Amino acid sequence: MEIPEFGPYDHNTSGGVVGGQLGCNYQFQQNWVVGAEGELWWSGMKGSVTTPEDFTPPGDPGTFSRFESRNLWNGDVALRFGYAVDRNLLYGKVGAAFGSFRYTETHDDFPVDNACNSCSVSFTNTRAGLLLGAGWEYAFTNNWTAKVEYDYINYGSANIPYPNASATIQSFPVHDTVNIVKVGVNYLFR
Q1: What is the dihedral of CA 175, 68, 105, 56, to 10 degrees?
Q2: Cis ω on the peptide bond leading into residue 111 (within 30° of 0)?
Q3: Domains of the chain
Q4: Would you place residue 110 in the very low, low, confident or very high pLDDT band (cuts 50, 70, 90)?
Q5: What does the alpha-carbon distance between residue 97 and residue 78 come to, in Å, rounded to a whole number?
Q6: Are the C-beta atoms of 14 and 47 separated by less than 8 Å?
Q7: What DSSP string runs through the chain?
Q8: pTM (2 decimals)?
Q9: Phi, psi at residue 5, to the nearest 5°?
Q10: Per-residue confidence at 165, pLDDT binned at 50, 70, 90?
Q11: CA triple 143-75-22, angle to 5 deg
């Protein structure tokens, strides 16, 4: 029997991001552009799930478990490859991403010998992942552009510790993916 106290804690997250980028492009043929960029942004993405515990052994007063995840910040270094027509640039990108996540576990039964009604413990984990993206950039003046971009980041799996030393498990896996739609403006130094 699977005990919800130990997961799974599958859930979706949502929220906004704010940040900036620095990069360069090189037009190597009439319409073809290659570039490199770095980005860093603060993230307000979060989500949680609460599950009732369906198995209570003698002496285990637990009735629920809650798991919350927050994406604190992300950054990436990526290569862009695009096709320019007039003032438009359609591009794809691939790169390495880095993100920081905070996981909070709340249970109403650990540690069993304390006086709290529900206790929480948090863990912060910074991980590397793979970024794939696509976008459209439009030059509305010679130096200013606007862009819309979609990025998918897969941070893979990591084990985080279970906070009760007497539990039957001592860690469990988390898997994080991020889907972001970004809208921004860029200034071109020529």
Answers
A1: -90
A2: yes
A3: 4-187 (2.40.160)
A4: low
A5: 8
A6: yes
A7: ---GGG-------B--EEEEEEEEEEE-SSSEEEEEEEEEEEEEEEEEEEEE-----TT----EEEEEEEEEEEEEEEEEEEEEETTEEEEEEEEEEEEEEEEEEEESSSSTTS--SSEEEEEEEEEEEEEEEEEEEEESSSSEEEEEEEEEEEEEEEEEE-S-TTSS-SEEEEEEEEEEEEEEEEE---
A8: 0.83
A9: -55, -30
A10: low
A11: 20
Residue type, 111: P
Is 89 in contact with 62 (CB distance < 8 Å)? Answer: no
Tokens 């020529």, located at residue: 190
Q: Which residue's entry shows tokens 């307000």? A: 44
